[in-house]
Design a protein that fits this description.
Keywords: Membrane, Transmembrane, Transmembrane helix. It is a single chain. The relative contact order is 0.19. It contains eight helices and no strands. It has one domain. With 164 residues, the protein is mostly helical.
């Protein structure tokens, strides 16, 4: 699942708590709830060989996804429970990305990395159970479900924010 749905859903789960610690904990576990929903993940380890056009498209989507997530985090900063729920919701993906890029050795968070790799590895039993037989169906269903999470989460949060 991309970063933006994790950011929004983490903020939604965080909104149920007044304590930033509890909000962050709920946001962290919300990551695993969302990753249990069928979705499409591009191969970050480079096993799948993409064409130049596919790589360009993936990079553009990731850039927009991360940019929108950062903008939301800046906005959520004034709401501590939403902010910490959102930040900790994306922690697993940040750690996994660092591992895929071999930037940190040994693993920065060993247990977190192991759990994250198990859920994100396209070859794992866990991941295969959550995928449709067709990669195209994963892409289409994944985009629809992620869009529902993003827009539904924002529609839930907006009336609850005190913007005065």
């Amino acid at each position: 699942m991309s970063i933006l749905p994790h950011t929004v859903f983490g903020a939604v789960t965080g909104s149920f708590f007044t304590s930033p610690v509890l909000a962050g904990t709920a946001g962290f576990f919300s990551h695993y709830v969302l990753d249990a929903i069928p979705h499409f993940d591009p191969d970050m380890r480079g096993i799948v060989k993409y064409s130049q056009l596919e790589l360009l498209g993936i990079k553009a989507v990731v850039f927009v996804d991360i940019g929108l997530s950062l903008l939301l985090l800046i906005f959520f900063y004034q709401f501590p429970s939403l902010f910490w729920g959102a930040v900790l919701a994306v922690l697993v993906d940040v750690d996994n990305f660092m591992q895929y890029q071999n930037k940190f050795y040994p693993k920065s968070f060993p247990l977190l990395s192991r759990i994250g790799f198990t859920m994100h590895d396209n070859g794992s039993k866990w991941h295969r159970k959550l995928e449709f037989r067709s990669g195209f169906m994963n892409l289409v269903i994944g985009i629809i479900l992620q869009s529902i999470i993003i827009f539904g989460g924002l529609l839930y949060l907006l009336p609850r924010l005190k913007l005065t």
